[in-house]
Design goal:
Elements: E1 4-7, E2 13-20, E3 26-34, H1 37-52, H2 59-70, H3 76-94, H4 104-115, H5 121-141, H6 148-152, H7 168-177, H8 182-194, H9 198-203, E4 209-210, E5 215-218, E6 221-225, E7 228-232, E8 241-244, H10 247-259, H11 275-289, H12 298-309, H13 314-321, H14 326-333, H15 338-352
Antiparallel strand pairs: 1-2, 2-3, 4-5, 5-8, 6-7
């Protein structure tokens, strides 16, 4: 049976074709409902390129292959983020370009157009990462010679120049301002004193709290997606961890659990609450207390900055935060300051004079 398009009595077209599937088995099939013969033939050309794993297929065609695989491996929210970035920022530029014709020069031009849109540096980095991930996939599984994104160079950056945070004094002013809402007050106490992510906080269950040993187990994350509550595994394997808490926080949590209505081991600590609740309470508390404006996620930065200031090692801070790499902790929180530089100079001066216990 030759690949051919034929017209059906209802005026639409169908096409019959042969192909070799991914296992090497030869198959025959057909597809109906095309408006024109050309539409049927174009569809078949794209389909056969995909089946042949040919790097001359367009990025749009290859994107469909990539996403079909990724949907089986990634979280629903991660897939949605990939689709949003690709549909808005990548396919309009490269969708009709064969993947083996996407050059470093074309990517540089595309980068320039993206940067002119005044996106945040972190979002520009995310856009570049998504294109690079697809090209790496083509290199690894579909015989593309190299990833042109590497030659083109980076766009944007991983983190903002400065991560705002609260001092203990600022946090206490904020906490006093929202103390009229027990759930909000308790949630921010846990966020500030543990450094956990807000999604981890929202997924906490009563039995994750070990009051006797003063620990909190983190092994899940919560998100609200398309009107649905989704409880899933945390961001990385390192995010699965046990965090120690001090006596005052333990006592506050114990009192809070005692106020919950018939709490069971599997009950969420903050039932029916979402990130938006804590964002609203943060806005309210900032307005009432007059402290500087930060985001809910910045309570995590506040905790990490406090630990670094206490002299806790980056390794221990990384474990507590659930970072995959210690370098992430060092690059994010272990910043040099003029005060620290003065201390270094003073110490070196003492060493040069042979003073004891200088180091």
């Amino acid at each position: 049976m030759a690949n051919s398009a034929k017209r059906d009595p209802n005026g639409t077209w169908h096409i019959q074709y042969r192909y070799t599937d991914w296992t090497g088995k030869k198959r025959k099939s057909s597809k109906k409902g095309f408006k024109t013969k050309k539409e049927a033939e174009d569809w078949l050309a794209h389909f056969l390129l995909q089946q042949a794993a040919d790097p001359s297929m367009t990025l749009k065609d290859f994107w469909e292959i990539y996403m079909e695989d990724m949907k089986k491996r990634l979280k629903e929210t991660t897939v949605a983020n990939k689709e949003q970035i690709f549909q808005n920022c990548i396919l309009p530029y490269f969708g009709d370009t064969p993947i083996n014709e996407i050059t470093a020069a074309k990517i540089r031009k595309w980068q320039g157009e993206m940067m002119e849109k005044n996106f945040k540096p972190t979002y520009l980095k995310s856009i570049q990462n998504q294109l690079s991930a697809v090209m790496n996939y083509a290199v690894r599984f579909y015989d593309l010679k190299s990833n042109p994104c590497k030659k083109a160079g980076p766009m944007g950056k991983n983190d903002a120049d400065e991560k705002p945070y609260w001092t203990l004094e600022e946090f206490n002013k904020f906490a006093d301002a929202i103390s009229d809402k027990h759930e909000a007050w308790m949630g921010f106490q846990i966020l500030f004193w543990t450094g956990m992510r807000v999604g981890e906080l929202l997924a906490l269950k009563v039995d994750d709290i070990d009051l006797e040993n003063k620990t909190i187990r983190i092994d899940e994350g919560y998100t609200r997606f398309k009107g649905r509550d989704i409880i899933s595994t945390p961001k990385t394997e390192n995010s699965i961890r046990v965090i120690t808490i001090h006596d005052e926080l333990r006592d506050a949590i114990e009192e809070y659990i005692g106020c919950l209505y018939r709490p069971r081991p599997g009950s969420r600590l903050f039932p029916e609450k979402t990130k938006r609740f804590f964002e609203h309470e943060m806005d309210r508390g900032i307005e009432l207390s007059g402290v500087k404006r930060i985001t809910v996620h910045c309570t995590r930065h506040s905790h990490a900055t406090m630990l670094v200031g206490m002299g806790i090692s980056p390794v221990e801070v990384a474990k507590r935060l659930g970072h995959k790499k210690v370098t992430t902790t060092i690059e994010t929180y272990c910043h040099s300051s003029m005060e620290n530089q003065v201390k270094i100079a003073d110490t070196l001066g003492k060493v040069s004079k042979g003073e004891e216990n200088a180091m």
